[in-house]
């Protein structure tokens, strides 16, 4: 049993709180992808829901708690998907939600956050500045600060994906998980190491935003000064120590991939799986492209964690060369 | 209770036979689409499975029957999705599957049929010629002929979508169903008229392949000489009388849409719902675009029935004007 901040019984209980619209998502083989990747590939699809990412699983837990006992108001920093999901879960329960984001965040995500009725504040800086600002707002207004990956609900929500994967194990060998703050990797990893310990847990991060991966390899928090990736969903510079501790327990490996591989992954998923994915959701395919020998003849599951793309950028990424 | 060839108890029983990978598909609001359509829109997503269309629901029933009692071999005519699904269901059970298709069918669909191990025969003509050829093969070889929409299993399989929609009613007012041979329209229509009779059942067909819609309006079989539409999945010329009889019982309306609206629908689903859909799967959105007043302030569900597109054509359809 992995010793982390997570608890499998609590994760099972979380399923009863989360709106079913986010649960029991499709998991299926994509054979048309396989000649291009040299291994068996299944997709766990987290985009066919009202916020087009897996984040609703966690925000449902946060919002349910706030609706029961909290200040009925919350603020989070977000590169887009957490904010959108928190806005959705909050609106459903009549909560006041504020989101702080970088001015450089994907416009389509910011539009959706506004459309869902959240108050949106933009900061002139990157996600780490947005985190600081959200913290200041929470303190000033006495409302709940939702910290992605640090707050256990965000990990427990993501971990429910792990329960669904464990039900399908041992049909697959490896799960590829996009690594950003670490909620998904630690949540899914905890459950798999508990219920399906033979499944290999591989985290994938862009070379241009490698802080958590470097931290995992060095077994200590490593921060970076800059971020340079199209994978906005996983673009943090300052790993959270508690999350790193959990990741060290549950991850079998953490690998970095190049931007070109992320784009190639998005294009493969578009052309051969019929899926629109945001860059973060193509990290798993990118990892296979860069490590064909390692994954040859294995059966990998990649979690397609979001599809919120800027349409113009997306057209450029997937247009034929 | 609508009097059709279908029976709701048999449809419920079908759920126990169909591989769960095809069942309980996502059904969710797409609010980002709504400003463009002037009504509430939910999507029933039938593309997140190994064959990327709803057809597996029906072919699972056919193949299960053959594996139990039949000749362990079958042939069908297909514009692509039925053949792919029958090949998948047949391979799973070790059956011999042959598919007859027009030489002009979407290449990507034909590739997938071959990759799934079915024998593929191409005819120099349209789908109606493929139907005749499949019938001749069945007679010659003494194997099962699978006739889409005529064979009750194809309707019952599609009808299981109706059960899932009925569970969600009365949260929506109208369901928009792509109309081709009629399996999906009669199957889903039968269940909704039985379990959720207040839901309006609207069938949608392209102006360029209007045979079944004209037949429904004239209450008699009307055939057409030619087909001119990109919506290959619904492109028949010769409606089947038994299917028309059922459609007359369960459909509230049947409408035709222009090719430009189908393309506009595909683009809206791409840009605002993050979904790759084949032309047939955009018919519902096309119908809303052409009848804004009619659907204003209603809540429509559109069944996104397939995503098997030719990648090059798709890039042309959705590329920015």
UniProtKB/TrEMBL annotation, chains A, B:
InterPro entries named in the record: Ser/Thr_Dehydratase, TrpB-like_PALP, TrpB-like_PALP_sf
Alphabetic keyword roster: Lyase, Pyridoxal phosphate
GO biological process entries: isoleucine biosynthetic process; L-serine catabolic process; L-threonine catabolic process
GO molecular function, one term: threonine deaminase activity
Record has Lyase as a keyword: yes
Swiss-Prot/TrEMBL cofactor(s): pyridoxal 5'-phosphate
Claim: Lyase is one of the keywords in the record: yes
One Pfam family this sequence matches: PALP
Domain Tryptophan synthase beta chain-like PALP residue range list: 23-306
PANTHER family: THREONINE DEHYDRATASE, THREONINE DEHYDRATASE, MITOCHONDRIAL-RELATED
Name of protein: Threonine dehydratase
């Amino acid at each position: 049993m992995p010793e982390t901040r997570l608890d499998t019984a609590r994760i099972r209980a979380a399923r009863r709180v989360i709106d079913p619209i986010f649960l029991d998502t499709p998991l299926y083989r994509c054979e048309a992808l396989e000649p291009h990747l040299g291994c068996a590939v299944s997709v766990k699809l987290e985009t066919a829901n009202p916020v087009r990412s897996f984040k609703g699983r966690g925000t449902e837990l946060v919002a349910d708690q706030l609706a029961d006992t909290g200040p009925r108001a919350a603020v989070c920093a977000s590169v887009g998907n957490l904010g959108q999901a928190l806005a959705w879960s909050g609106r459903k329960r009549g909560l006041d939600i504020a989101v702080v984001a970088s001015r450089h965040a994907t416009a389509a995500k910011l539009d959706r956050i506004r459309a869902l009725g959240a108050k949106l504040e933009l900061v002139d800086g990157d996600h780490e500045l947005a985190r600081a600002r959200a913290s200041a707002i929470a303190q000033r207004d006495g409302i709940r600060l939702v910290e992605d990956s640090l707050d256990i609900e965000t990990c427990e929500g993501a971990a429910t994906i792990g329960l669904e994967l464990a039900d399908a194990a041992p049909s697959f060998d490896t799960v590829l998980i996009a690594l950003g703050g670490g909620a998904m990797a630690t949540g899914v990893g905890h459950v798999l190491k508990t219920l399906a310990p033979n499944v290999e847990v591989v985290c994938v991060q862009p070379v241009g935003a490698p802080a958590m991966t470097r931290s995992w390899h060095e077994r200590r928090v490593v921060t970076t000064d800059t971020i340079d990736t199209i994978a906005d969903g996983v673009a943090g510079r300052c790993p959270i120590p508690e999350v790193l501790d959990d990741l060290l327990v549950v991850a079998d490996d953490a690998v970095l991939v190049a931007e070109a591989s992320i784009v190639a992954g998005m294009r493969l998923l578009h052309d051969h799986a019929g899926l629109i994915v945001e860059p973060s959701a193509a990290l798993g395919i990118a990892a296979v492209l860069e490590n064909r020998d390692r994954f040859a003849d294995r059966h990998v599951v990649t979690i397609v964690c979001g599809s919120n793309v800027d349409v113009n950028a997306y057209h450029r990424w997937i247009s034929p060369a």
